[in-house]
Amino acid sequence: MSILKKTVAAMATAATMVAGAAHAEDVRIALVVKALGIGFFEAAAKGAEEAAKELGDVEIIYTGPTDTTAEGQIEVINALIAQKVDAIAISANDADALVPALKKAMDRGIKVISWDSGVAEAGRMAHLNPSSNALIGNMIIKLAADHMPDGGEVAILSASATATNQNIWIDEMMKVMDNYPGIKVVATVYGDDLADKSYREAQGLMQSYPDLKAIIAPTSVGIVAAAQAVADAGKIGQINVTGLGLPSEMAGAIESGASKSFAIWNPIDLGYSATMMAYDLVKGAEGGPGATLDMGRMGEITLDEHGDGAMADPFVYDKSNIEEFKSIF
Asked: At 24, is the pLDDT very low, low, confident or very high (cuts 50, 70, 90)?
């Protein structure tokens, strides 16, 4: 038996032990992550347990492979099929490679959704995106504008010029600029998601635009580098760095004041919402394009023509909550 199979077998045994302690009528929902031991997914598991406690008749099986491979997740899926779980909610390592195993699960009556990282339509009944392009685009300019009551100049530090998601978010931001009068985007530069290049690009922005009030970086590498550049230039309090980042990496910038706030999706809400959606399907709700599913305290989600839906606005992190989240992811 391979090490991976031994690991899956051990997880299956552990899950069976948990199942033995649960009520026979409990709905068993497997939260399958890209790999075990990752803080983001452990936070999602907390959200799943919150949903289970709220629902009262749910057992969560938190599982995944030891590394981020499709092969590892297929092993886990097959083990869950053998356990006859009621639902699988998976963050996929490969959109297409998991489809045959997940179709097999659905053929056995198991409800399947993907979340965070999607599965191709044929392999699931719904997909939960953490947010939407439009919501992200609006949020990144709002984060800057909220601290610029008199308006002013902002610049964008993106990843690469060809980064599809970055370009879409920036385009969506530009569509809503009329909602933020007095805010002027003076430049867009690219750090190629390299810390040193992003740092230099941020330095260049400050030199080229002495009246700059904010740098918006919709990239976790760029936002950290820009915050460091602002701190090193002695411009904390003059230039606010914001965008999309990770609490563990941005805690120092929040504490120093180089960044007043930033955003990323809340993994606790994500695990909670995925569990609620899976439960709704188990209880008879329909999936697929146009369907509406319940997400508990997060409201309802309506799926688009591809069976995808967006959970919420990106979650904002600032001095009020950075301590809570910086040790999670």
From this structure: low
